[in-house]
Design goal:
Largest sheet: 8 strands, mixed
Bound molecules: (3R)-3-hydroxy-3-methyl-5-(phosphonooxy)pentanoic acid
Number of domains: 2
Order of helices and strands: HEEEEEEHEHHEEEHHHHEEHEE
Number of helices: 9
Strand content: 15-25%
Number of strands: 14
CATH architecture of the largest domain: 2-Layer Sandwich
Radius of gyration: 21 Å
CATH topology of the largest domain: Ribosomal Protein S5, domain 2
Structural class: alpha+beta
Length: about 375
């Protein structure tokens, strides 16, 4: 972490956050105006859920635990510039640029998020802020950017707290808070903070697991998963007719909701065991079942809806045929959209990639796909 002067350290140390569960801390305020204008930049990746988070309650709390692989080449870069506020008002002062251009819709979203975390970071109201952000993948690719975007922003906010107050110097404290704050922006974003794999959600299976933030799973899984590829095949880049936010809400009236949450908790045990042992067959069974369960839940919501495209189903069929013929460990999963994620370990890349390129990519919209793989998590740049 940076070697800032931590001008405000004594004050911050006097009182720890009074409620560790919500991190609200009125003491994180700047007592003088001599903050040097500066900036913080984080690059944070997207993640792909293996066990899906679908259904929430309260303030972004999951109805069941989820497990994800952290990706590498789908990321968001976010720079947070800050300087002492010129006006004396208490509003959050924010300029926002997406790929170098002002973007009012995104600014409004980020401002709303910053308002919602302003009791966690009260100093935000004392600064003029500029956020400059951009994704490694085209905005029109149909790839959800909320996980990478909200985790990158959360990391910037925690770095700023550390810079000003020196309160998050321990890695664990920093990661936990960054994950907590990312969760408030977008549930799945809390898992992007960690390298390789993450678990979000209360379970007695792994020590430290919580509904409030994700935890690192790197040390709980077989090495093979660190080598996994994820080829993301773009079946459609059109905007989804039903957003994830609406999809989560529809789970509240879904007649299968309770059975789903019970099933997810049961699958968690099997998945953790398979990932620990490196049992790819069992991993693949759970992964694919989860993908189809997620879309089954959409189809059984009221009103029901379908996000899959005919080409998604054709790709799934081809992949299954290929696997049956070759016995190679290649599996699919889906996000809340029509794009197919094809997962396989590095040791079959020379076999599987030609299949993906020759047989699946031609089924994609304009031949669009993204080569991704399991990565090392966010980095400060
Ligand atoms: O984080 P949200 O609110 O965009 O929800 C994401 C839900 C899924 O991507 C479908 C599953 C998951 O666990 O990431």
């Amino acid at each position: 972490m940076s070697s800032s002067l931590h001008r405000y350290l004594p004050l911050a140390l006097k009182t720890q956050p009074h409620n560790m569960l919500d991190y609200k801390n009125p003491n994180l305020v700047i007592t003088s105006q001599d903050v040097e204008p500066d900036s913080i930049t984080w690059r944070s990746p997207s993640n792909i859920a293996i066990l899906k988070y679908w259904g929430k309650h309260g303030v972004q709390l999951p109805r069941n635990p989820s497990v994800s692989l952290t990706l590498n080449s789908s990321f968001t870069d976010t720079m947070l510039e800050y300087r002492p506020k010129e006006s004396g008002d208490k509003n959050i002062s924010l300029e926002f640029f997406f790929h170098q251009e002002e973007n009012e819709a995104f600014r409004a979203k980020v401002l709303k998020h910053l308002e919602s975390v302003s009791e966690i970071f009260p100093f935000l109201r004392q600064l003029d802020l500029t956020v400059r952000t951009g994704n490694s993948f085209p905005h029109s690719a149909g790839i959800a950017s909320s996980a990478s975007a909200m985790s990158a922003l959360a990391l910037c906010l925690c770095s700023l707290e550390e810079e000003l107050f020196g309160t998050l110097s321990e890695d664990d404290a920093f990661d936990k808070k960054a994950s907590y704050v990312a969760r408030l922006g977008s549930g799945s974003a809390c898992r992007s903070i960690f390298p390789t794999a993450a678990l979000w959600g209360q379970t007695g299976e792994v020590e430290g697991a919580s509904d409030l933030y994700a935890i690192a799973m790197e040390d709980h899984i077989h090495e093979i998963f660190k080598t996994f590829h994820d080829d993301i095949l773009i079946a459609s880049s059109a905007e989804k007719p039903v957003s994830s936010r609406a999809g989560h809400s529809l789970m509240e009236g879904n007649p299968f909701a309770d059975a789903r949450y019970t099933d997810a908790k049961r699958k968690l045990l099997r998945l953790l065991d398979a990932m620990r042992r490196g049992d790819l067959e069992e991993f693949g069974k759970i992964t694919e079942n989860e993908a189809l369960t997620l879309h089954g839940l959409m189809m059984s919501s009221n009103p029901s809806y379908i996000l899959l495209k005919p080409s998604t189903l054709t790709m799934i069929e081809r992949l299954k045929e290929y696997r049956a013929d070759t016995k190679h460990p290649v599996f699919f999963t889906l996000d809340a959209g029509p794009n197919l994620h094809v997962l396989y370990p590095e040791d079959v890349v020379h076999l599987v990639q030609p299949f993906v390129v020759d047989e699946l990519v031609p089924l994609c919209e304009d031949g669009k796909y993204i080569q991704d793989w399991v990565g090392e998590g966010p980095e400060q740049v």
